[in-house]
Amino acid sequence: MAEQSLATRRPQTPTVAATIELLKPITWFAPMWAFGCGVVSSGVSVGDRWPYVVGGILLAGPLVCGTSQAVNDWYDREVDAINEPNRVIPSGRMPGRWGLYVAIANTFISLVVAWWLGPWVFGAAVVGLALAWAYSAPPLRLKRSGWYGPGAVGLCYEGLPWFTAAAAAVGAFPGNHVVAFAVLYSIGAHGIMTLNDFKSVEGDRQTGLASLPATLGVERAARLACLIMGLPQLAVIGLLAHWGFPIQAMIVAALLLGQVVCMARMLTDPLRLASWYNATGTTMYVFGMLASAFAVRAMQGG
Prior knowledge:
Elements: H1 2-9, H2 16-23, H3 29-42, H4 50-75, H5 77-83, H6 98-117, H7 119-136, H8 148-170, H9 176-196, H10 201-207, H11 212-216, H12 218-242, H13 246-266, H14 270-299
């Protein structure tokens, strides 16, 4: 009787709060910021195109990124039951197959909005959504690899939104400068995503997910993540100096130095301090992106 009474009290449909929690608003910042950097780097005035800017930011954040979070939580529900049982799906606040239904609905809405924003945005949204599903869903399940998984997420979070925004703003290929920085910051984001895997090391090991912390060990994976984050930024500094933007190069260099200081502290206890670094060092990383975007804008004559 007690079990039957408990079952009747469980929700049959998710609440709005549970749905928002599934989409993880805190994760939307990175692609929304990258989209903003792409708008800046395009050199195009968007004063009379604010619907495009707002629509693109919403697409990058709550729609495409939110979809990726819903897909990931649905296919990770067994891992989360070990690592984080209070998450919305294993806790039962997102009952039945509603996690999957939300992911499918958000995918459809994303495609509709992307179509409205134009062919460049639609094409990029298709790629981003395909990677979002391939990252978590079988048969590909890219997240089983500590190399392909973070690479796919880094591309979706940083490079793809940046390139998409710039291309859509100019209505054409945005230029090699935009591509260079979008690619470099996507590579650096691989390290950020590796640090994000530290919170689920035990569950990854038990379920056979080959994240870098699970396969290399926490200390080695942390050092590798720092290297992957740092080297692309050194390349950005070199390109900015080579292209005649010493001020922006010095800004990115100063921000990288700040990250190195944070990295040194994080490496003393990676398992405990990885999330701290993602709130400190990563902030400096994304400000470097913005400085680089303003340099590209100047190249474009904006």
